[in-house]
Amino acid sequence: MIHMNKKDIGEIKKQFTPDNCTVTRLCGCYVDGEKNKLAQLKEAFLSLPEEEIFKYFEIFRKALSGTIGRNLMNMEFPLHTEDYGGTQEFLMRLRESRLTDDQLLDAFYDKVIASYDCAENYLILLIHAAYDIPGKSTDGLEMFDASDEVYEYLLCCICPVKLSKPGLAYNAQENCFQNRIRDWLVEMPDLGFLFPAFTERSTDIHSLLYYTKKPEELHDNLVDQLLGCVLPLSAGNQKETFHTLVETSLGEDCDFEVVKTIHEKLNELAEAKKDDPEPLALDKAEVKALLVQSGADQEKLTDFDAQYEACAGTDAPLMVSNVTNTRKFEIKTPDIVITVNPERADLIETKMIEGRRCLVIPVDDHVQLNGISVRTVPFGEDVSGGEAAGEEEF
Length: 394
What we know:
The protein is α+β, with helices and mostly antiparallel strands. 29% of the residues lie in helices and 28% in strands. It contains 11 helices and 23 strands. Helix 4 runs antiparallel to helix 5 and helix 6 runs antiparallel to helix 9. The longest helix has 17 residues. The protein is globular and about 80 Å long.
């Protein structure tokens, strides 16, 4: 299934600048922690003062920032939501109104307030924009006189509104320091969504792009009640799912070398695809192939398909950025934590030493202990060869 990628998102974010602005209208509703509407705003966006426009641009760009699969998630609408009275059909009517229908706006705010669990004040921001998509030549250059589609969209941002911190401030008129007046400040959004999706530089009314500041706080109720979309696994749940699949599928074969190989192969995949606009994801067959390539016994993977579907769902892929940390290779025991440059995981191996299985790490003279350079062998000892000269046992 094709979804919005980094290039698609970047193209929309570029519109939130003075030279490229396509926003036509801005609406908003200020809500307190008891779900009361305190104020509403309706503005022709370009009529706002320049300073305010720049602040709004910052908020809009933030709602399209982060990692796809962590902070940004492509979501599809089930077919029934596109029928009259469905969530997708409601958003379509809201978009077609260009935010000029007060009844639709009030209904939208009511839906957000009813489904968004928040004990503090917040601001619901909603914009309408119309982007005349420039055509592109075969060499990728934009042709501004060759547009054949206008992408009309809504962007919703839900921003916390918090009281500024108390403190002293300088009063230039009085030439003195005095207690600062505390104001209610609009912060960067906690969540938001772009509807419809902008996929392969075209309108996709069957999908949207969802933003969450905290990957583990997806606000399930709002996604279900307001958007009606199927919520994907969070980044943390994807990681736990992958770990469970590896441990369950490998069983007794889940040893150090196999798991190290899995990590190395994931790093190789991530490195090979780092410049691709599409996020790197593994489906059920690809996860199974990864385990086999890493040394898992294929005979022990007979129930893998059922295990995968039980953990992740039938068609749900796992984002590589969620299931592995490509910047760190970490080994943990109850008493020891070892962090290794992921490109040098090959330095770690397991050996039987005096009847005990040990992790063995070759070291040289460049070793520090709490920031102090130390020798790894006693002074005067022969370091010309031998296991004891270049390896530390843990």
